[in-house]
Amino acid sequence: MKIILLGPPGAGKGTVANLLKSHDNSVHISTGDILRNAVKAGTPLGVEAKGYMDRGDLVPDSLIMGMMEERLKEDDCQKGFIFDGFPRTIPQADALTELLNKLDLKLDFVVNLEVGKDVVLDRLTTRRTCTNSSCQAIYNTKSNPTKVDGICDKCGSPAIQRSDETEEAILNRLETYNKSTAPLIDYYENKGQLKSVEALTSDAVVKEVTSAL
Ligand code: AMP
Questions:
Q1: CB of 173 closer than 6 A to ligand 1?
Q2: Integer distance in angstroms from the first to the last C-alpha of the chain?
Q3: Which protein residue has the closest C-alpha to ligand 1 atom 8?
Q4: Which of 38, 70, 77, 94 could form an SS bridge with 46, CB 3.0 to 4.6 Å?
């Protein structure tokens, strides 16, 4: 499959992408994960991105597009990809259309995960993420806690609250989403590529997406 997952932070894009990739071995490409790994590794991209990310602001389009062009040229993307957190702005979406044409890749559709602000706030403040970059398992202190507090069940690394998941940063991320990313809903609707799904459970979303493929 070649799809984009659109939706506010906390809509469950990462969880849905992880479930979908086992459907046909498409690769899950999360710009947030790539950036967090770059920050951790201290690469020039990471050093530049860190301040934006900690505040909950968007990283500039030029950095994101350079990074995504490199990623999309890798062989594993030919069989399929699930974009999670990209594109985030209209200029990114325009640049993506050009890039896909250039690489001769065709999008199936864009999935819009619909979820209310209260649900998002609750989900994000209670989310814990494994710090091991090759694991990155996601937990929730209420609905899916780790067996041992703060330790990933799968790999034993620390599972922590991300620095951009404080209430202040989350409110800023939601505002940024409404201002810069939500316009993509109309953008893809107008292109006839949008499929909206109520994101109550990730299993229900996966079912709707796979049956639409
Ligand atoms: P995410 O894990 O998708 O919520 O992304 C975490 C942070 O990474 C965001 O709050 C942004 O600072 C940055 N980021 C991720 N994807 C993008 C993107 N496509 N454009 C700009 N910034 C991004």
A1: yes
A2: 7
A3: 32
A4: 38
pTM over 0.90: no
Cβ(10) – ligand 1 distance below 6 Å = no
pLDDT average, residue stretch 123-131: 91
pLDDT interval class at 117 (50, 70, 90): confident
Integer Rg of the chain from CA: 16
Find out whether the beta carbon of 85 lies less than 6 Å from any atom of ligand 1. yes
Q: Which of 13, 50, 123, 128 is catalytic?
A: 13
% of the chain with per-residue pLDDT over 90: 77
Q: Which domains does the chain have, with CATH numbers?
A: 2-26+80-115+176-212 (3.40.50.300)
Instruction: Kindly write down the DSSP assignment for every residue of the chain, as one continuous string.
Output: -EEEEE--TTSSHHHHHHHHHHHH--EEEEHHHHHHHHHHHT-HHHHHHHHHHHHTPPPPHHHHHHHHHHHHTSGGGTT-EEEES---SHHHHHHHHHHHHHHT----EEEEEE--HHHHHHHHHTEEEE--TTT--EEETTTB--SBTTB-TTT-SBEE--TT-SHHHHHHHHHHIIIIITHHHHHHHHTT-EEEEE-S-HHHHHHHHHHH-
